[in-house]
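Working notes for the structural subgroup meeting. M.R. asked for a predicted model of this chain before we commit to crystallization trials. I am recording the input and output together here so anyone reviewing the notebook later can reproduce the run.

Input as submitted:
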Amino acid sequence: MRVPTKVIAVANQKGGVGKTTTTINLAACLAALGQRVLLLDFDPQANATSGLGLEKIEGGSAYRALMGEGGLLEKIKPTAYERLEIIPSEVDLCGADIELARLENHLQRLALVVRPILDAKRFDVMLVDCPPSLGILTLNAFAAADAVLVPLQCEYFALEGVSMLNRIIGQLHDAGTNPRLELFGVVMTMFDGRTKLSQQVVDEVRQHFGERVFETLIPRSTRLAEAPSHGKPVMYYDKSGPGTAAYELLAQEVLRRLQTPA
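Returned structure, recorded in token form:
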């Protein structure tokens, strides 16, 4: 019997932390490990969509399904990579932040439309690439998810705002909006082993979050930064590079956590 699909929201309200890079590359590496992966691009900027080589097509996003017009199953598109599929984003999602607030059960809209996908049992893991904010789209992702993965850059202000993120996870859990929601883990990104600051930040984050912090550190890498502009995950752009090695290790850690009962 198959384990139910695990829904993981990848989120950080601060931009530029490697959130979409982590979503794309973790999805590709999990698929390469044999997992059936669905990536939901829930960010109106649609960087995960273009980063996997897909066009932004009008009407292709989750927007209309959130508004009660049709379902999400028909929005699923294949990618060039085996076992990795995507629900793309496009600019129409920008309007959802305003329009969702007017709808009944406005925080539960994504959970409602995701249910048929989960019931179909086509996927092992669903990764949701959230916008860099704590607006209604991100809160919808949290209400639909089992857990939240937080990419955190190895820079001075790394911990600012993460306490707020953790507090919101706790509030959604305790208020009954999503009683199963938990912090899945923190992944340190943009690590520069040449600087003392990077190691200091990692040490500080480990003090705060303990075993929730993944052992794998994602390095600063030019090739990692270049890969999305070529519409490819880094493992297909720079096969033997440090970015590829790091995300392959991270995917193995994630898989272990997924297979270990809470």
